[in-house]
Amino acid sequence: MKKSKRQPRAEKTSLAIEASTPKRAWWPWAAALAGLFVALEVYGPALSGAFVLDDRYLPFMDPNAAQATLSNWIQGMRPLLQFSYWLNFQSSGTEPYGYHLTNVLLHFIGSVVIALVAARLLELSGTTGRSRAILSAIAGGLFLLHPLQTESVAYVASRSEVLSVLLYFSAFALFLYRRTESMTVLRSIAIVVLFAAAVSTKEHTLTLAALLLLADYYWGLGGIRKNGLLYGMLVAAGAWGGFVVWRVLKDAPTAGFRVAGLTPASYFFTQCRVIWTYVRLFFLPFGQNVDPDVAISHSLFDHGAIFGLAALIALVAAAWIYRKRWPLAAFGVFMFVLLLAPTSSFIPISDVSAERRLYLPFLGLVLVCLEFLRRLKISQAAWAGVAILTACSVLTYQRSAVWASPLTLWQDAAAKSPRKLRPRFQLASAFYESGNCPQAADNFEAASHLEHPAFDLFVDWGLALDCADKWEDAVAKLKQASMLERSAHIQSQIGMVYAKHNRWQDALVALAQAEAIDPNFDMTYVYRGGIFEVAGNKSAAAVQYQRALALNPLNSTARDALTRVSR
Prior knowledge:
This protein is mostly helical. Helices cover 71% and strands 0% of the residues. It contains 26 helices and no strands. The protein has helices at 2-42, 44-47, 70-73, 79-92, 96-124, 129-145, 150-154, 159-176, 185-199, 208-219, 223-251, 264-283, 305-321, 327-340, 362-373, 378-402, 406-416, 421-433, 437-448, 455-467, 471-484, 488-500, 504-517, 523-534, 538-551, 556-565. Residues 1-23 have low confidence and may be disordered.
């Protein structure tokens, strides 16, 4: 009788488990779809934003991009990154929307991978069940929706961050989720392939082997004895990548050991302060700036660098001392410092601070947060996560709106970095592109007082003055540019301005000077042809347009003009 009474209860229990399984199966998918919807909403303002800064020098902006072969596109240190741009170019041409949308989708997939990594690390730290599921979802949500991520996602050139980090943490997830105690050959190959793909997207991912070693020994995952095959393959692949990077760093003017005004020591001292700005932006995300003005610390005593270094040493020491009591937070601190090291240690980079550099080490700070959330009741942690993610969504939407146009982006940067040349220069250019030439000219003038003006500032300032109907001032600025650099382009612009105001002889003299400097500059002949066309000499104009097309068959202005005078 006892057996007969117990059997139905066992059957009910089994049925209850089976009934609950589908719920556990579908909720992650629902959460992921909700996350994708929210991501598209909060990044909505930036999806149609124009290309800015380095975006405009990417391969798809080359006038000859359509004629270039795929092999031409993927040459250089980041072939996988360039391949992703090539795919966008095939479908979107030079329309920004497709490029921005790709960034958002890659960022979303990356957040899913981050959630999986966080779930495994929570499990290793002793958190299981519903708490593990909720906290890993919060981790993915923070990565997806934190306003500090906006630059990496909204800036097309930062595809290098978004794609490389996705590949990087996919490799880390494969390492963490292995089913056998020892690393198998197949899994090792998969991790190395992802590692190679990440490095071919951005070089800071060379830190993967160090992260795996850290996780291996910190969490007791087998060490060299169990994972020796993997580490051997990673070292072989990383050695080649490191050699290539070293060759570039030796001579590159913007990153490496030849950056003007920065030595490894001064860069390190400056980073001792900058790192704490990153930490503050993570916990208190206000005052974000695409182009911050950071003073250089040439010694440990400049601008309080010594205090930043002391605090960093204290943080790492505390993480080591309390690693058993606060295992997840301690590991997060070690991960944060390790993954930030490529851009925030001794290797100088001309821009000493950039929000996108926190994209790779972001998870380290998330783990610190999870350490404290996991000590709350499940309901308290869930509601805290909802509140944090809601606030992040609002702030990210607002920051995304700043990235919606070059004008709003550079107005924001110039207001926050009033003594820095580049934001003011870019703001002036944005006004010029929007057709507000008087404002453009005023901002170029303001920029000229921040640093000794270079020739490009005088050129753009002159064109803005011409657009603002101050052509005599425009010619004066262009002539100042010509004294700084002997250029056919500048002389042709002087000729163009003179021609617009019927100063034909002055225009022809300037164009003759342009031809003498560089007879292969095609726009010289376009402007000269325009003068002949206005004078009614269509045959002479046609000759000039033909010369321009012979030099540059893709010159649409010359082609249209030749068609016009040949009728």
